[in-house]
Design brief:
Radius of gyration: 21 Å
Bound molecules: adenosine-5'-diphosphate, magnesium ion
Strand order of the largest sheet: 11-10-9-12-13
Oligomer: single chain
Number of strands: 13
């Protein structure tokens, strides 16, 4: 029997998807990919495989989840299985340095960024900026380790100190700080490769959305995760710029991504900068309750449709009879 397989490493994020599958009667199985093995002499089961491996898996003690997932995905692909968010998607999920050139090649503007490996290179990269600058890990997620510095000098002092934590893959990104005239970013959600809705996320409060302006206290770095602020506010909106939407959809199609949330900031002149592609996306329950739409229900429907399309072939003998009469 064919099923939907959900590949992931975080139970709590899958909860709403389980409920959606159960409500519509979709047969599904979860593969929890923290550790395990792949025997290349075996063939995978029939089904549609939805990869939800997350860049932030290392924050849940699943350091090698993405490496393991990459092996499982290439095995599935080698056997021709339908994978939603395939090896190309995973490569982008775990590397913003890979995301930015991929976005740019579809005409999608990203903030000026420099990737640097090692403290010396980070300091040298800092000298190429002159205003406020952001330091973020290449393999990120949840805003973990994203810090805003008032100046390149402040960033260099931080990197020279004991407070600096080497990113999990050793790669740091230094990035131009985009100042939004209003305190929000936008996250555009895509399901089945098509725009679903966008959420405006208020950046005034909430540790996840650090670095907000008020986090930049002089030369201190942003205390991501330490603010006891109320939950961020999310508001669903129906549309984004039509050209941007088309470019996002083309970018997703070319990179094996069926389901994703893409984040952007608009600056005072109206220029849009895209800075984060999340192939493992989650939806805000309060915002969805107010709006009436459900991202996880739409994902469940999409995956079920894929399963039916691929594994419920029309009965050929019935068609032949119909043609004969
Ligand atoms: N270049 C930037 N300019 C302004 N704010 C930024 C910039 N990059 C990140 N941020 C803020 O930090 C948050 C987390 O950064 P992001 O790149 O999305 O990392 P993560 O992959 O951990 O989510 C963003 O949602 C945004 O609010
Ligand atoms: Mg983000």
């Amino acid at each position: 029997m064919s099923r939907v397989y959900v590949l992931h490493e975080n139970d709590s994020w899958v909860q709403p998807l389980r409920a959606a599958f159960e409500a519509q009667g979709t047969p599904y199985i979860e593969w929890f990919l923290d550790e395990g093995m792949v025997d290349f002499a075996s063939a995978p089961p029939d089904g549609v495989f939805y990869n939800r491996m997350s860049a932030s898996s290392y924050t849940r003690d699943h350091r090698y989840g993405p490496e393991y997932a990459a092996i499982v995905l290439s095995w599935l692909e080698r056997h021709g299985r339908r994978v939603v968010n395939d090896t190309r998607a995973l490569r982008l999920e775990i590397s913003k340095a890979a995301q930015y050139p991929a976005l740019e090649s579809f005409g999608i503007r990203t903030p000026r960024s420099i990737a640097a490996v090692g403290r010396k290179a980070i300091a040298a990269a800092a000298n190429r900026f002159d205003g406020p600058v952001i330091l973020k890990p290449n393999r990120g997620g949840k805003g973990h380790g994203v810090q805003l510095f008032a100046s390149p000098e402040a960033l260099k002092a931080h990197v020279a100190s004991d407070a600096f934590e080497l990113p999990v893959d050793g790669v740091s990104l230094l990035q131009e700080y985009i100042k939004a005239p209003q305190p929000f970013i936008t996250r555009a959600e895509f399901i089945g490769g098509r725009f679903f809705y966008a959420v405006r996320v208020n950046t005034e409060q909430g540790f996840e959305l650090c670095p907000a302006d008020q986090c930049a206290v002089g030369d201190a770095f942003c205390p991501a995760g330490e603010t006891a602020a109320p939950a961020p506010r999310f508001q669903i909106i129906d549309r984004i710029d039509a050209g941007l939407r088309r470019r996002y959809e083309a970018f997703l199609a070319a990179n094996g991504i069926g389901i994703a949330g893409i984040e952007f900031i608009t600056d005072a002149s109206g220029t849009i900068y895209t800075y984060d592609v999340n192939t493992n996306t989650n939806y805000n329950p309060e915002a969805e309750a107010r709006d009436g739409r459900s991202g996880m229900r739409a994902i469940a429907r999409y995956l079920d449709d894929e399963l039916v399309r691929l594994y419920s072939a029309p009965d050929v003998s019935a068609l032949a009879v119909a043609a004969a009469v």
